[in-house]
């Protein structure tokens, strides 16, 4: 399948399926976070400008709920002159990262601009991590069920795979390793959690996400690839 062809991903849930309570919680938390972290975001923007100039933000099309594509925003971590067609993964010690970019990768502060995606209703605070179009073809064999849920800033996969960039074996193709090992592992975590989530459990994962940024949440061991989840 062509990874850019999302036509096979029919909308599987209506936009209201996220729930009014969660949407209200998303807007409340996003508003509070935008106010509290506004000074920090301004400092990051100025640091990026001084280090390498514009653009400050990195925008990329991601796969959203129901397979609908949307533009996701981050603070730029790579050099301005970096090849936009380069590796679709960020590796440990990635030479494309700037000094400020390495700090953003370590702290996950590059994710702050996604608060805008939350305001727009394209993302939630808690939800599966949205994949880039390069990996759109991974949503098959049962894993397309992940697309029932609005993607988020935080969640089980984001917390437990906090240091994902360090998981790639040097002897293996990183794209193949992601497709065969990391994506299935994260998708199984998502499918084990989201069908039975509660607002309370989402709040707990928010707290765990904060602890992960502080380095207080552990990462799971990588197990051998198991068969995809059946339909």
From TrEMBL:
Q: Which family does it belong to?
A: Belongs to the bacterial sugar transferase family.
Q: Among its keywords, does the record have Lipoprotein?
A: no
Task: Show the GO MF annotations.
Answer: phosphotransferase activity, for other substituted phosphate groups
| Native source species | Mesorhizobium mediterraneum
Q: What is this protein called?
A: Sugar transferase
List residues of the Bacterial sugar transferase domain.
Answer: 22-214
State whether keyword Nucleotide-binding applies.
Answer: no
Q: Mind telling me which PANTHER family this protein's record contains?
A: COLANIC BIOSYNTHESIS UDP-GLUCOSE LIPID CARRIER TRANSFERASE, UNDECAPRENYL-PHOSPHATE N-ACETYLGALACTOSAMINYL 1-PHOSPHATE TRANSFERASE-RELATED
């Amino acid at each position: 399948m062509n990874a850019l062809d999302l036509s096979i991903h029919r909308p599987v849930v209506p936009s209201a399926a996220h729930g009014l309570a969660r949407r209200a919680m998303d807007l409340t938390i996003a508003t509070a976070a935008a106010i509290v972290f506004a000074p920090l975001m301004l400092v990051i923007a100025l640091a990026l400008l001084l280090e390498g100039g514009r653009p400050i933000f990195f925008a990329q099309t991601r796969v959203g709920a129901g397979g609908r594509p949307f533009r996701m925003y981050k603070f730029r971590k790579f050099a301005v002159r970096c090849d936009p067609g380069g590796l679709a993964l960020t590796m440990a010690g990635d030479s494309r990262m700037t000094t400020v970019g390495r700090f953003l990768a370590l702290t996950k502060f590059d994710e702050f601009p996604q608060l805008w995606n939350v305001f727009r209703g394209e993302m939630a605070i808690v939800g599966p991590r949205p994949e880039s179009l390069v990996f759109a073809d991974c949503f098959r064999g049962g894993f397309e069920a992940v697309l029932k849920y609005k993607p988020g800033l935080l969640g089980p996969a984001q917390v437990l795979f906090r240091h994902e960039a360090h998981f790639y074996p040097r002897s293996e193709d990183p794209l193949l390793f992601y497709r065969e090992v990391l994506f299935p592992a994260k998708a199984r975590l998502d499918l084990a959690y989201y069908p039975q989530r509660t607002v309370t459990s989402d709040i707990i994962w928010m707290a765990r996400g904060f602890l992960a940024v502080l380095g207080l949440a552990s990462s799971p061991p990588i197990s051998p690839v198991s068969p995809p989840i059946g339909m």
